[in-house]
Task: structure prediction
Amino acid sequence: MKLQGRQTWKFGSEVYLNSTGTAVGPMESEGPLGALFDVRYNDLHCNEKNWELAERRLMEDSIASCLSKAKLTNDDINFFLAGDLLNQVVTANYVARGNEIPFLGIFGACSTSMESLAVGAALVDGGFAQRVVAAVSSHNATAERQFRYPTEYGGQKPDTATFTVTGAGAALISNEPSPIRITSATIGRVQDLGIKDPFDMGSAMAPAAADTIMTHLKETGMAAEDYDLIVTGDLSGVGAPIVKMLLKEKGIDVSNNHRDCGLMVYRPDQEVFAGGSGCGCSAVVTYGHLVKELMSGSLKRILVIATGALLNPTMIQQKESIPTIAHAVALEGIKGGSN
Amino acid sequence: MSNKEQQQEYAKKIKPLQPKPPYFINCLKAYLVGGLICVIGEALMKFYMTYFNFNEETAGNPTAATLILIAALLTGIGVYDKIGQFGGAGSAVPVTGFANAVTSAALEHKSEGIVLGIATNLFKLAGSVIVFGAVAAYIFGMIRYAFKTLM
Amino acid sequence: MDYLWAFLVGGAICVVGQLLIDIFKLTPAHVTTSFVVLGALLDAFGIYDNLIKFAGAGATVPITSFGHNLLHGAMASAEDHGFIGIAMGIFELTSAGISSAILFGFLVALIFKPKG
Result:
């Protein structure tokens, strides 16, 4: 049985993360991880005519660099799993129109990065696919204009607000051996503790992250210390301390090995309020930075928990609170790893 | 789905971890930015009264129009949103904030075309001000006029 | 002196707006719509005119003066035409503001590109 407990998938030994590709905008290029990203634009429009085209370019670039590193073409891929933050996952749809790979559109807000990786790994492990590409993207301006206000609107944002990462990440999953194994994944439950403020998504998402981490550890029988790093997606400066507190209450101490992608992608002096967010946030940090650490052996085993606020402006205006979700994927570097 | 008690408990628990808005600093910035915009308005009023044929009653019109033009241009070159982040209500409450709401909405929807994008969305954010203003003025006007005729 | 009063009164109105945003968690749109209604209400009691005499642009530049102008135009026209005059005159005094916002907003949107 590959199912462990109620919601955790334990993959066989034959699921690998073969290659990754990342593409980012100007703020992310200037961030502390800037040099690690494959494609970097110093123009928020990414040389395109409008914001939506810019986001599409980022996703296409991330896939292109992922496949070129693996020396593969679109025709070699069985399935393309992708999603983004925009309505009807338009970025993913239009990228899929271009690359003509059999396509499954996926939406889990900012958790889409790990959702697509987990589902892709399950397809490969189950023998339903040989090679899968999982990709996500987000763009600061497309997100602003869809979820909040026009980009040039002078509304003041509070310090709890997050800054949507302009970036895309793509990963190639297959059964062909590579230095990184995808070992397990825990699918999260939707949590909602009544936070209604769309400018405070860290507080809204922390319970989802805590629930998924706890469940993952329980169902896999692992301890928090077994992971060199437990990385949450975009809890930011507000949500990160909350998740630590929630886990501590349950007797899980992650104070030494927890980090948050939203706090890693920007320098503290960049004006990004509480930190980065968006599915591009966890994707570029995982696929651009953490994967390299796994390959070099400086990290052996990590758990990435991508957190998603399933935010909809209409629902917020109808006084609904924000449902949130978190999906976890465990990655293991083979070099110096346990097997 | 969580119940009310769980929600309240969570809200209480995370309160110390959530940064509070810096009330005093925000108010100070709003005062400075808002006051400064009004000073520019005062200078414009004096200018129109001195060099053109406007009196105290009518000088408000070209003043508002000029401020709106300045705010629209600042929105176009991508500066007004930065002023807004700094000034908060100080840049939202003056008439320049109205111009920014109109211009930013129009500009953002440019990619959907001139008719369905720019023109349709022009009042997306600022429309509520006109609606509430007109309805309020209508009702207050009726009441005041009724009083006047009855008295 | 005029400048000082404009600064003090205009700034103070904005501070009220800032407190509504920070403490009562209103959106800027809620604040501006409330202020327009407030401006009309103050004018209904004849208070806003005194504020303008006192503070000049400090009272005419904030969006509250939009509500004041709407009612003022309506009342002036009601003098001549009765109840129908309210409808006729409501946009009389605010015409310059609204038409220039439409014109400049449209032109800027045509010329510029959003910067993000």
